[in-house]
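Title: Comparing notes on inverse folding

I've been comparing how different people in this forum approach sequence design from structure. To keep things fair, I'm posting one structure and asking everyone to reply with a full sequence. Here's the target:
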């Protein structure tokens, strides 16, 4: 985590020297992914073969640009997958509240990641994740993780994570759905900051990893909007979908033996890369995870 802090500090200096238009890096970001546009999925066109005819040829379309990815159906194997996890954010069997090895000493604070978090041991029935201002500048923040829970659920290579979320509106709010195990194995299904209203941060920190700051040209991603997310955790490529459109495929994947715990949380930015929230003690920020499932 110290390496990422050094990288973020360097990038922060670069942006102050005029590299406008690139959203600020967050503590859960990685070095830049290749700048080439992400190709659209290859499609195969076949005519009905006559008896003993040679197979039809495969034609790959020109790569799609990041700004206008083509619609993409669910992975072909999805029909064969089974539902292995359905989140109940009020369940003490599924989740541990307010503690995570992703935070120094299991929490409650994490200033090294530029967060004003003070984790609290509260569950989130209904999927509402909140942060409430405390006296002194920190915020009481919700974090749930499957790490250490009685069920101990872990995502594995090939799993498909789906979530429906309503994004926060208040400056400084920092919601995320991500994974963690043994100080690494992090994949961010999404991170969001309302000061970049149409942008999602999508990251794979496993191995060489890859990331994309994806700006939604349709502006369906916006403060207060409700969107559907899908993350396919492939061995050779992690794919992110927003409202059933593939927006990023990292071409790196998580490898064949990967597994990690789930984290769903609300953090608060300390002002380094995104605005620091204002307000007296009791001021509240929130977002909602209406549903979260995993198919395998």
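Reply #1:
Here's my take.
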């Amino acid at each position: 985590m110290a390496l990422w802090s050094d990288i973020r500090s360097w990038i922060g200096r670069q942006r102050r020297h005029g590299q406008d238009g690139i959203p600020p890096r967050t503590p859960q970001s990685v070095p830049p992914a290749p700048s080439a546009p992400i190709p659209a999925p290859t499609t195969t066109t076949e005519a009905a073969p006559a008896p003993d005819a040679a197979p039809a040829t495969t034609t790959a379309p020109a790569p799609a640009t990041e700004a206008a990815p083509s619609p993409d159906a669910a992975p072909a194997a999805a029909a064969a997958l089974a539902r292995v996890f359905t989140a109940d954010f009020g369940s003490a069997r599924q989740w541990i509240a307010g503690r995570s090895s992703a935070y120094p000493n299991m929490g409650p604070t994490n200033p090294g990641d530029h967060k004003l978090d003070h984790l609290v041991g509260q569950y989130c029935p209904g999927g509402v994740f909140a942060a409430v201002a405390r006296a002194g500048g920190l915020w009481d923040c919700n974090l749930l993780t499957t790490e250490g829970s009685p069920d101990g659920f872990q995502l594995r290579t090939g799993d498909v994570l789906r979530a429906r979320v309503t994004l926060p509106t208040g400056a400084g709010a920092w919601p995320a759905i991500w994974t963690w195990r043994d100080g690494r194995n992090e994949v961010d299904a999404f991170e969001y900051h309302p000061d970049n209203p149409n942008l999602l941060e999508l990251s794979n920190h496993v191995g060489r990893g890859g990331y994309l700051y994806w700006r939604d040209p349709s502006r369906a991603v916006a403060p207060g909007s409700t969107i559907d997310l899908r993350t396919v955790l492939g061995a050779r490529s992690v794919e992110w979908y927003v409202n059933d459109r593939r927006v990023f495929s990292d071409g790196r994947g998580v490898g064949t033996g990967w597994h990690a715990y789930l984290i769903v949380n609300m953090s608060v930015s300390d002002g380094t890369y995104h605005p620091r929230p204002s307000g007296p003690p009791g001021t509240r920020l929130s977002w909602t995870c209406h549903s979260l499932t995993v198919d395998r």
